Amino acid sequence: MSDNDDRRCDVPLHGDWEGDWESASVAQVGEAALLSVLAAQARARDDERVVIGSGDDAAVLDIPSATVVSTDSAVEDRHFRWEWTTPAAVGERAVIAAAADIAAMGAVIVGAVVSIGCPPSTSASVVAEISRGVGVGLRGLQASLLGGDLVATRQTVVTVTVLGTTAGRRAVRLDGARAGDVIAVSGPLGASAAGLALLAAGVERFPELIAAHRVPRPDLSQGPIAERCGAHALTDVSDGLVAELATMSQAAGLVFEVDSTSIPRPRELADAAVLLGADADDWVLTGGEDHQLLATFPPGTVPSGWTVIGRVADASGGDESVDRATVLIDGIPTGRRGWQSFD
Amino acid sequence: MSDNDDRRCDVPLHGDWEGDWESASVAQVGEAALLSVLAAQARARDDERVVIGSGDDAAVLDIPSATVVSTDSAVEDRHFRWEWTTPAAVGERAVIAAAADIAAMGAVIVGAVVSIGCPPSTSASVVAEISRGVGVGLRGLQASLLGGDLVATRQTVVTVTVLGTTAGRRAVRLDGARAGDVIAVSGPLGASAAGLALLAAGVERFPELIAAHRVPRPDLSQGPIAERCGAHALTDVSDGLVAELATMSQAAGLVFEVDSTSIPRPRELADAAVLLGADADDWVLTGGEDHQLLATFPPGTVPSGWTVIGRVADASGGDESVDRATVLIDGIPTGRRGWQSFD
């Protein structure tokens, strides 16, 4: 993926408020000027799909059926900490996290409505920077800002609702896996968890991992590609690989078998684990928020760039230790490997 | 409109969590059980427009173009106070406020995604009741819950993003007024502001006004009706009548002339104003959050049930005291009547 600077474009950051944004508070600048900054970041005027953009009561989209929608919130001190990230990264990350759910249906991302809550005393430049990050995220997805809302809250909350379209094709559910499918992921896993561990330890090395925690950059165009290649089931890895495999397995009533050595890992992961005395497997298998796509395909139909990590099997009788729907990592049911969320 | 009880249906309030919801916290019950309660309130399974409802990565809708979307947040201590309302009212009101923006495009409401933030110590029954209110609101609009998100925040925040469709017809913008149009509203104004004043004064009389503040119940089916009757411009009264008239006037570059005595008022309004020593005109002209619809129509095309309150005029020369785009209430430019937001 390109870096941040490549995706900037020349948009006004400061709307129609003439004062000093660094020293002014959100309350001083006011909602209208701040919303104009947000709207300017990813203007819909060049997007033929947007009939009416932000500024009227609601946005109006001319998109082919089916319409796809999902929402995601990022909350200060729960999903991010100001000492470990930047306002622009918070905005971009919120867009990507919400957009990943659209890609996870095999759909194309069209645009987003964004609600930003923050304390009235917040520097206006913080909201302008969050807006800039929202714009970077949307432009990187060829998507438009469809509307915004600014409210006063006790901590910063960014809620992004993303709209997409299947463009007349299938929506790929997460429960569609079939016995005999191969399991594949669209990119490396574990970077976000490793980056978080590095930030928590105060280690300033491994900038790619730290950057991946601040803003994951999965290739979400792989969602529609997976659909076209015939994916039977599709989701994104937001809660950790094992958690997503368990959800898909239970939804389909099938066994998901994964070879942990085949899971693609970020370059710096092993070195970072050694430095921190951490278990890189934990980051890869249970770390969340990478937002790579996870799918099952009929054998031979896996798209270029994806990595096969396992296969889907019927729960054939005999081994009573294996439930009908379960996840096996290297042949061992995950419940016995000790990942807490599933014990 | 029917009252709350008429619109309840037999849905589980307590999901698959078996404990005591009154004494349990949100943190104890967990997100999955709470989301199942939310999803159960306005299930999409009987709605042919919803191909995939909540539970997958995103919801999928088969709706005719154009798709309409808007978002609105209700924040504790900013938009509502627990001592003056109930969790169910907060949920229902959030849905109606967001849905009014869809109706204000002349569109039909299809469904909503709802993000609820609250402190982890919040009683699970509070979230269950907010969810019930969301369900009452959606069912009253023949709309479905399309997805939900629960996050831990320091104060309660309910963000509702509503989707609708123009069903192949026009979207009615707020800037489309033409000289010669008549201005009309779909229902009485001032009830919400009066209800708020009564609550603030601790007066327990005039239950209709207090109920209207807790949950406004405009007839949002009047949005598509206004479109079919040929409305040139349409919005909803969320910020107060004068504020909305000023927005429409400026957007169209025309003069909006209103006769204040023609504005429909709630039955109890005059008596409440006398009791509180308040000015009922202030509630009617500047009180927000009634969410009635406000439109301009060609003369003779005003739908049944709407009330004509004025007319749209060109700013013909001569009187320099009247700007090209302005609002006249009883012939007096609003800037001179002293409503603070426009001074």
Task: List its salient traits.
disordered N terminus, Phosphoribosyl-aminoimidazole Synthetase, Chain A, domain 2, seven-stranded mixed sheet, 13 strands, 22% strand, homodimer, alpha+beta, four-stranded mixed sheet
Descriptive overview:
Two copies of one chain form a homodimer. Helix content of chain A is 32%, strand content 22%. With 343 residues, chain A is α+β, with helices and mostly antiparallel strands. The first copy, chain A, folds into two domains: 4-165, 60s Ribosomal Protein L30, Chain: A; 182-342, PurM-like C-terminal domain (Phosphoribosyl-aminoimidazole Synthetase, Chain A, domain 2). In chain A, the strands form three sheets. Chain A has a seven-stranded mixed beta sheet with strand order 8-10-7-11-9-12-13, with helices on both faces. The first copy, chain A, has a four-stranded mixed beta sheet with strand order 3-6-4-5, covered by helices on one side. A two-stranded antiparallel sheet of chain A has the order 1-2. In chain A, a hairpin with a 6-residue loop joins β1 (50-52) and β2 (59-61). In chain A, α6 crosses α7 (207-214) and α6 crosses α11 (280-286). The first copy, chain A, starts with a helix and ends in a 6-residue tail after the last helix. At the A-B interface, β2, β3, α4, β4 and β5 of A face β2, β3, α4, β4 and β5 of B. β3 of chain A pairs antiparallel with β2 (59-61) of chain B.
